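User: Sequence in, structure out. Go.
Assistant: Echoing your sequence, followed by the structure tokens.
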Amino acid sequence: MASPPRRTALVTGASAGIGRAFARQLALRDFDLVITARRRERLVELQSEIARDRAVRVHVVTADLADAAAPQALHDEIARLGVAIDVLVNNAGFGIGSTYIKSTWRQQADFIQVMMTAVAQLTHLFLPGMLERDFGRIINVASLAGLMYGAPGNTLYGAAKSFLIKFSESLALELERTDVRVTAVCPGFTYSEYHDVAGTRDRVRQLPNAMWMDADTVARQGIEAALRGQVVYVNGSVNKLIAAAMKHLPAPLARSVIRRQAKNFRKLD
């Protein structure tokens, strides 16, 4: 009996946090990997870690997705390596630790490029190969924030995550007659470096423990949801409850609650 074909996953933002966890969890399922981020030393460290534990191939390709030329360059380098991507994990992202007017436009433009434009372009680049091979999984790491009303601070974050959810839903419908599936994974607060980079660690560490999940659990659940073809997946029972509540609270009340709570997880000064 012929062995099943080896599958390869591309994980963006794989140097830390949820992206690193996605790479580890995919390796546990015997996926070969292409891991990418800006910090090559972190990627090489992860490559060595996975190689110690799993008999999978791990390619390291550095890329800064804030550069508009990076998605095409990443695609071209993977093609040069002779690797076909079967699973695309659009995870790369960052936060801006200030309000909209107190940040620079360069920060906001980079945010849009990484969080939305690069996701759409990478999907557009790798989707044709998936369709040709009649198999693919596209995982867009969104957020519970994309299912809620907007919050002050890190102003475009909720908008970007909402975009990822709607993009995933629409593309999933376009592909429903194929074996290519699209999933928006929506975690809430997750233990990672994200809050350190955004400068909100002191605020968020005061949140209840029940609000938090670990990155490996988020990634494992996201992969399972993608493999079974679920279009939108909210991680964790607490986050599911919050998402459901947002659908039923009157808008003025929901906005009032979020406005009062925003100081606990975002920098507003």
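User: And one key feature?
Assistant: The domain at 8-264 is CATH 3.40.50.720 (Rossmann fold).
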